[in-house]
Amino acid sequence: MIGNTGMRPSRRSLLTGGAALATTALLSSRSHRAGAAADLHLTAGPARVTLRDSPSPETGVWAYDGSVPGPTLRFRQGEIARIAVENRLAEETTVHWHGVRVPNAMDGVPYVTQKPIAPGETFAYEFRVPDAGTFWYHPHERSFEQVARGLYGAFIVEETTPIVVDRDLTWVLGDWRLGPDASINDDFGNHMDMSMGGRIGTTVTVNGHVPGPFAVRAGERVRLRLINAATARIFAPAFAGHRPRIIALDGQPVEPHEPEDGRIVLGPAMRADLVMDMTGKAGERFAVTDGFYPQFTYRLLEIAYADAPLRDHALDAGIALPPNPLSQPDLAAAERHEIVLGGGMMMGGDMMSGGDTMGGGDMMGGMMGGDMMGSDSDHIWTINGVSSTEHTHEPLLFLKRGRSYVFALQNNTGFHHPIHLHGHSFRIIARNGEPTRYREWRDTVLVAPKERVEVAFVADNPGDWMIHCHILDHQAGGMMATVRVG
Ligand code: C2O
Ligand code: CU
Fold it and tell me: Which domains, from first to last, does the chain contain?
């Protein structure tokens, strides 16, 4: 099955030419559209998949509806999503609709917004999708393991009037830690991963498969929705010979622009929508390279031009997306808060010498009962000095509904942290004191070591909302807090 089932007929005619060329592995496995009649059902459970071309052993995974990624859920902006989630895992789970501004009770946070879904049980999610864009879904219970085992999928909301492209494709980027027999290494949540960069894998997949060539035609225009579903790996794909333009970040439209150094940097949970004009010539090949960790640069895949061009000039149509209905923060009136990220193995650039000796004052305050961090404690990371390894805890901040806020995220650690706020999107207004050029809206912001990022938003969605690192081992290791909007 291919990813454009359920597309409107008017677009299908545009898609037919190119779609036939694409390797199926690069298309999403399945699509659903919520209609008046069709309620959706997702089943989380064990499955076996082949992550590489055969002959290669199968991998036992946890998956939605037996496939990795799970089915692509497609909606039109403003539609009501009704999704019953059945748990056939041997442990509790929930589903979080990452980036979708849902009512609090539908947010999928165990013990905070709902009772976790017990094995054998089903929970019915129902919410309106207010924003068009590229989102995704994943469990919020023991997510450092459940996501790493394959539980995730794309959640796409179409604009009322989509931009004109030849193909609209989604690449869900995955990262797996596999043994030689292709089975998943079960060293989840080990102290080394948790206290450093998280669980970086051995095998990168695109839509659940180690990708072959990406077949394109000269003159073609592709909208490419990139989703980083990895639990820890940061991707930074660069498209040799091409000039992709970013049209949306984390689902929210942005003034179309080329990325600064040609790389699309995506921390875990982050998305980017690109418009790529296939400006190469028939028969040519180009590498897509990921060099985020420079010493481990690798070729993600190859763009392969067919022998026959689609057209002899690039499409000449607008690519700017209409804005979503987000409340504009009032910066002059905004209340400001410091959010300090602390902990980990590196403190102030120094390696910690051992489990019981700690530097760094910001970590000390939050340790329960004044305890030092032991080498096998899970309290590794902090937000404003507090390390929260459970979803339930006292709110870090009480926000007034309708009021504008600026959060200054200060990273005092030696690692990157993709920080996600639930229930809201925020504008990135400054990095290290410099105003940003595009003031982009996001729901997850990558904060580099020692960096300070200011984000602004209106607290317009009532409830208790998580703010946490989306390196899921860091979240499990304490980099998690709640803000209460009321
Ligand atoms: Cu995508 Cu709290 O998560
Ligand atoms: Cu982190």
Answer: 335-485 (2.60.40.420)
